[in-house]
Amino acid sequence: MRVFTSVYILILAYIIAALVFWEMSLQRQSGRIFAQEVTTLRNQVDSTRLPNIYRHEMSMLKQKLDSRTRQYVAEGATFLIVILIGAAVVYGSFARRILVSKQQNNFMLAVTHELKSPIAAIKLNLQTLEKHKLDEDKRNKLIDRCIKESNRLNDLCNNLLFASQIEGRQYKPAMEPFSLSEMMEEVVEDFAGRYNRRFMEEVEGGCRSTGDAAMLRIAINNLIENAVKYTPENKPITISLKATDDATAEICIADEGPGIPENEKSRIFDKFYRIGNEESRKAKGTGLGLYLSNKIVAQHDGNISIRNNMPSGSVFVVELPLNAKA
Ligand code: ADP
Fold first, then answer.
1. Which sign does the torsion angle of CA 263, 269, 273, 275 carry?
2. β pairing state of 176-179 and 248-254
3. ∠ CA 131-137-139 to the nearest 5 degrees?
4. pTM summary value
5. Which residues have any ligand 1 atom within 6 Å of their CB?
6. Confidence class for position 279, pLDDT limits 50, 70, 90
């Protein structure tokens, strides 16, 4: 990118210098035309015998010179503005393409890793089960690990599949009424079963909404998955649902992790975006989770925002339209 920027600036500087050079050449040529016209006038009109005519012709020549100067300056300035706008547009789109291709590259690396590591873990556990006669307890542990890893694979495949559907604009949410309260209770139960850590649940009963419950579940799962991923194991994660008024439900996922810096809050919803660079990131991920969650919630006329948790961490707040309270 740096090499491109330097070459681009050099080419732009050359074009601008060439434009200035041509502008100056035109002005010089205009000066020469004026001098020639004055000589011709002097040969044709005697200034001492016909001073009035001479002065009139001379002032006409000066007017022509001024109008040429104005025309050249205006045209030069227009060209310069067009060149600068064009250069800015080209540079902006090129920089965006480079950024996207870099993010896609990181994404491919992350996806390959994310796909390979659960497959390798499942294979290893199954091979251990096949080769060794283990007691019931150990067998169950290995099977449990396999199930967890296949859940991870399943989540990742869902995200990838859904991302491509959203990109291809094939996804239209099925608008069916469902119980948000029941969905949230199931989600919390599922996470509590999958992870050996503290989930605090404050789910208000009777909240109903309309939409694609399976997709909304993916959106909420991604947020809770992040809370789990970015929060130390000894810290609790609080998941709540409440009706803020007759028409709005608020789902909060609060963690006590590192939190999200102010300047990153809007960027983390971009596709493939991950905070920090590849070396500094310890947690695995693809940068797709929040992008998808945001899209799904927006398709349901909802909204995701981020608040700071106290004393540390973040709270992801999902607002969704509420049908009615049963
Ligand atoms: P992924 O987790 O796969 O990297 P996401 O789109 O889910 O992708 O999240 C984007 C980025 O936002 C993450 O890489 C992480 O840096 C940041 N992030 C998301 N959730 C949290 C959280 N609860 N706490 C701290 N950082 C978070």
1. positive
2. unpaired
3. 30
4. 0.67
5. 222, 226-227, 230, 255, 257-258, 260, 268, 273-275, 285-291, 314
6. low
